[in-house]
Amino acid sequence: MSSEKPILVVFGATGNQGGSVISHFLSLPSSPYTLRGLTRDPSSSKSVALAARGVEMVAGNNYDPASLDAAFKGASAIFCVTDFWAAFFDPSQREKAAASGISIGEYCRNLEEQQNRNIIDAAAKVSTLVRFVFSSLPNTNKLSSGKYKNVYHFDSKALAEEYGRATHPSLWEKTTVLYAGLYLENWLDTLGAGALLPPKWNKEEDQLVLPLLGPLSDAPFPLYSAVDDTGALVHAILRTDPGQKVVGVNEWLSIKDIAITLGQVLGTRVEFVQGDPGFDLGDPDLTKEMAEMMEFSVVFGYDGARVDKTIVKPGELGVPVHLQSVKEWCAKQDWKSVLQVGGN
To answer: Is 201 within a domain?
Structure first.
């Protein structure tokens, strides 16, 4: 009997979700898998650092099925995640979208759907494959009967998920779908800060101020640390039977709840003021996308669970999995830099 460990192939090994999976298994006293990380650039400093820790780093091009065939060779498990936003903010892709006569969101939806179709087709050919974990999101257009048709970063993944289920039933018998919740990390960058509408620091009053935006402020969202907790959740998924759709969530909290939690961590109070529900993120395509995403979440739930009753929470997987609380996550962040607490 061979003593070699099964191979786990991880997409986005230097990114948020994929990087978390790699970090989790590297942190174990004895990983159950040999780790193979896919990246666009194996020569990058992050890739080289992972290779030095024993991860086999290989180039993977989601538009090149042959490269995927090579990367998947001998794989026992594959964790698949793709990046909608890289193309969305790429000026060259915006030029192509304009030349095609469609919005950048629709253009990127088509791109990401094709990337995932290529990955699914390649995974279906791997004779050694036992488990496939597909990071996806609900089909907002379909679940809302066309009301929310501009949430392209959800539907791009959902359409590929539906393709995989219909086209490769044998692969889908080995598949668990992961719906990653709203990233807690979004509070720490420009895109997420606008999308999540975080509180602002009022230097004069020494407090946090949060605009209240009607139903958006009180609707629960699945808050999720993609960087800290995806690895532990994927490890749990790989220890359970396939065929489930799992939502990645640390806690379901409203935007108002998060502000209160952050105020507790910072030891300050939060003032709630009336805001403009028609928020503007500075980019009309992004504004429309995020506004519809948040409205969909209010009506159908971020994971679509008010319509799709098959969604499973991490605590329902049947195996132990510890995901930190939002307060624990907040306590580890450098909010003084993010909110400019004490700044000029």
So the answer is: yes
